[in-house]
Each structure stands twice: as C-alpha cells, then as structure tokens.
Amino acid sequence: MNAAIDTGRVRGRVLRDEPMARHTSWRVGGPADRYFEPADRADLLAFIASLADDEPLHWVGLGSNLLVRDGGLRGTVIALHGALDTLVLEAATDADPESRTVFAEAGVHCARLAKFTEREGLAGLGFMAGIPGTVGGALAMNAGAWGGETWPAVEAAEVVLRGGGTRWLTRNAVDYGYRHVALPEAALGFIAARFAVSADADGSQAAAVRTQLARRKATQPVGRPSAGSTFRNPPGDFAARLIEAAGLKGYRIGGAGISEQHANFILTETGARAADVEALIGHVQRTVAERTGIRLEAEVRVVGEPDGGAA
Q: Which of 25, 64, 226, 229 is catalytic?
C-alpha cells in the first residue's frame, strides 16, 4: 500500500514510522506506518485523492480518546488538529433572522468552540468545554459532558469520501446514540460541522460553564496523562461509582493506574506501555462484572497491533 501513496505534492507533513506516543494523551502507543498533518483543507482532500481505495485510515485529533497498541498502526494516520481549525459565527439568513449557526472544522478544540460561543453571547454549546478533544472526535463518537451531547446540537456535518470528495449530512441522516455514531459506508470521516446556537440573554449558561469547569478541576485529575473518562456510564448508574465500589481506586498494572481522585480515569506515568492500559481496562471490566453483574464498556477506542504484531 505504501507505493500507492504519492506524497510529492503534499504541502503538509508526512512522517514514516511515527511513534503515536507523541500524539495521544496517554503518551503511549507504537509507530504508525505513516502520519500525515495536512497544511489545510485543500491539502487534506488532495492527499485523500492520492490514496489507494484499500489504504487503512485512522483519524486523530488530540488523541484524547485513543489507545494505540504497542505494535503500532498499519496504514495512515491523518491528524487534523492545527490544520482544519476554522471557527466562525455564520450570518443569519433573511428567511430565519433569529437562527444562528457556528461553523467549526474538525480540528477545532472543543473547549475553544465553547469559549468562542461564550464570547459571542451564545448558548447551546457550553457543554463542549468539558470534552477533552476536537470537534472531529466529538462528531465521531457523539461525545458529551455535563448532560449535553454533540449530535443534538448539530445541524449538519461534512464528511470526506474516497477520492477526495465531500458531502454534507443533516443530523437526521446520521444514526447516533449514546457515545455512538454510525457513518454512511462511503464516508471516511468528519471534517466540519454546523452547530445550532441561541442567545445567552442573561449569561446563565456562561455562569453554569464556569461552575462546571471549577467542579471538574476539583474532582478530576486535570493535567495528568489520561484519556478522560475511560468507561461509558451504564444506564442509571455511573462507571466511577461501580469502579470505586469494587475497591479499584489506585489499582495499578505496570505504568498504568486508576486515579485516586476519580475512579473512571486511568493515568499513565513515564515508562508505561499501551499493554499496561489495556490490561487494566480488562481487569476493571472483569472485576466490576464479577461483583455487580454489569460489564462496563470502554469509551476509548483501542486500535493497532499488539507489541510485535504484523498486519
């Protein structure tokens, strides 16, 4: 597959055998065959057009919801953060002067999107401040925080297709649920979205966001290597409560350990391996299931080959 990729006209960076530990928030992960950082949208689409139809693709924003195994990734990683970063408030239309939308490309940090709408006096996207990733990642998994979720706020999203074309999909055309989004078969990934917003007339949403951010700082290990919440909350309960009740706070495997501050966070230290994190995820799932009958589902994506694996 390598020979099918012509990178001669690419304006961005194409790196070979790039360690994914440099690009994930857990700071672990083996090398990607190729790691592409496009210069901009046009560069991304030209690169996609140059790929063979069977080239495996992996989309990465901040790497905050991703565990790459120690054997690395076959195919090409496309990193959008810092490249697709356009963020604008679109003008109201004559047909609907009260309606406003925010256009955000996939590489925009969710916290930046939330702060942008607050500065503009707008409500509807404050929950994005609690999502430690990019708009593209939030679209791909219907990320949420503080009771809000991404897709209910979306008017339409733009996907890239094999061959470098694009298509806009309305919210109703996308199958989504709790931490789940099913892309149409022809779509490779999300590159932009339009979000519906409204006026935050009395500033109440901005105040609520500040309260939630202060609460997060007090109750979560902010600033430590983690992937945010590791497990989905089961219906009617909280993963953190179940993990803590199972006596797993502080439990460690190798260089990975469950946070003493918040039981749904797995933290890594220098020298940790992806295998440590994956083993700890499995241990938590087995232990909680044995004690409660509930099997926790990982919220993070686990991809790549085990150490020494080959495609």
A: 229
Own/partner long-range contacts of 88-95 (Cβ < 8 Å, ≥24 apart): 89/116, 89/120, 89/122, 90/194
Does position 296 have pLDDT exceeding 90, yes or no?
A: yes
What is residue 301's three-state secondary structure? Answer: strand
Going by C-alpha positions, the residue among 136, 169, 166, 168 that lies closest to residue 150 is: 136
**Backbone phi, psi, residue 235, to 5°:** -55, 125
Q: Residues 182-189: what's their mean pLDDT?
A: 88
Does the annotation mark 100 as catalytic? no
Given this model, what pLDDT does residue 108 score?
A: 97
Give the percent of the chain with pLDDT over 70.
94
74: left (phi over 0), alpha (psi -120 to 50) or beta: beta
Q: Which candidate, 134, 189, 193, 138, places its Cα nearest to that of 165? A: 189
5 pLDDT band, cuts 50/70/90, is: low
Which residue is catalytic, options 34, 41, 179, 194?
179
Mean pLDDT in residue range 41-57: 93
- Residue 299 annotated as catalytic: yes
Active-site residue, selected from the candidate residues 37, 105, 149, 299: 299
Distant-in-sequence, close-in-space partners of 282: CB < 8 Å, separation ≥ 6: none
